[in-house]
Design a protein that fits this description.
This protein has 13 helices and 3 strands. It is mostly helical. Helix 2 runs antiparallel to helix 11.
Length: 377
């Protein structure tokens, strides 16, 4: 730990981020804004379509979930505008405080009365008038911190990187939230690779990463059951493999052009988590292959635009920050869609900007606001 703190101190005593007095500023990337708003708009529509049945069942109000999503989207858009107007260089000095606050919040989920336990997991914090999921904040905080750290040339930081990653990811895993932990690990390792780390370190890291995820997958009974049903979907058709079977039925029912908006059958309590993790199955059922392909194309355009912003960023901090935020969207989308078509086991990861959820939507829009600010430079 002494080694880690010395590295942190060294990072924030250097002053490498400097803006040229002749730097030119532009408008934010309008094309990126249109993609973000389009995906968020699709999310509002599909959250309503997918949640009607369970909203009536649980709250006797078919508009409950969509009303909540609209509220969170409004907060998220305000956050998007605010973060896009803050010079991204300011996050360089705030990287360490933001990381420390995030670690504190990840620990606080286990405090009785403050942390919220639901469905056997401690993932939320109750602030009275709103509930926060710190693991979502951890994605953005770690991207900012690693971008600041990796913007400096330094040798021999593998040990400190692994300690930092073990601390943050370990806290997320014990909540437990393996899906989010995989996303955070993937983003961190990708940024570490792009920062110019030696190739031999990845020959060691990637097998360790895969071995660790595999070990965690079989350590918990519910995860192990998901894994066994992934390899043999017929083993428990009314139990552990029920959800993936219903997802595939939804896609099969959609065909090329879908059954029509609002006409999904799976949303009537046949498909679990229809408005959150499995919302893409409802998209495939109602909009068909063509509609689903358009949504995927929008995500590809979003990630491509983010990489383009990274390519033209004026300094290393901006480059890594844009790469980290874009990779976050891309990795989370890939994991969600892969689980929907049975390429990987179900992980409980939401589809960015589309799935129902407050913390994930607001934090992601905040990150995209930073990306838009980088595009101005």
């Amino acid at each position: 730990m002494k080694y880690l703190f010395s590295k942190i101190k060294k990072l924030f005593t250097k002053k490498e981020i400097q803006r040229s007095p002749k730097a030119k500023y532009h408008r934010a990337d309008t094309f990126l804004v249109l993609i973000i708003l389009t995906l968020a708009g699709v999310g509002i529509l599909m959250v309503y379509n997918a949640s009607v049945s369970i909203a009536i069942r649980d709250f006797s109000d078919q508009y409950y979930f969509v009303r909540e999503q609209v509220k969170w989207l409004g907060i998220g858009i305000v956050s998007l505008i605010l973060f896009s107007s803050i010079d991204y260089h300011r996050w360089y000095k705030l990287a360490l405080p933001l990381l420390l606050v995030t670690v504190f919040l990840l620990v606080a989920v286990f405090v009785p009365g403050f942390g919220v336990r639901a469905l056997g997991a401690n993932r939320w914090l109750n602030f009275g008038f709103f509930i926060v999921q710190p693991a979502e904040i951890a994605k953005l905080a770690l991207v900012i911190y690693l971008s600041a750290w990796f913007s400096l040339k330094e040798k021999g930081r593998l040990g400190a990187f692994l300690i930092l990653l073990g601390m943050v990811v370990g806290l997320v895993i014990i909540e437990p939230d393996l899906g989010t932990a995989v996303i955070i690990l993937s983003i961190a390792i990708l940024l570490y690779f792009l920062s110019g780390a030696p190739l031999w370190q990845f020959i060691i890291l990637i097998p360790l990463f895969l071995f660790g995820i595999g070990g965690l997958a079989v350590s918990a009974p519910y995860r192990f059951k998901r894994l066994t049903t992934f390899f043999d979907p017929e083993s428990d058709p009314l139990g552990a493999s029920y959800q993936i079977r219903q997802i595939l039925l939804a896609f099969g029912s959609g065909g090329w052009f879908g059954v029509g908006i609002g006409k999904s059958r799976q949303k009537y309590e046949y498909l679990p988590e229809a408005n959150t993790d499995s919302i893409f199955a409802i998209i495939g059922e109602e909009l068909g292959f063509i509609g689903a392909a358009i949504i995927i194309a929008l995500f590809l355009l979003l990630v491509w635009r983010g990489f383009r912003i990274a390519k033209h960023a004026p300094d290393n901090f901006g480059k890594y920050l844009a790469l980290g935020i874009s990779s976050w969207v891309g990795i989370q989308t890939i994991i969600n869609l892969s689980s929907m078509v049975a390429l990987v086991p179900l992980t409980g990861v939401p589809l960015p900007l589309v799935s129902y959820g407050g913390s994930s939507l607001i934090v992601l829009l905040s990150g995209l606001g930073i990306l838009l600010n980088i595009s101005k430079h």
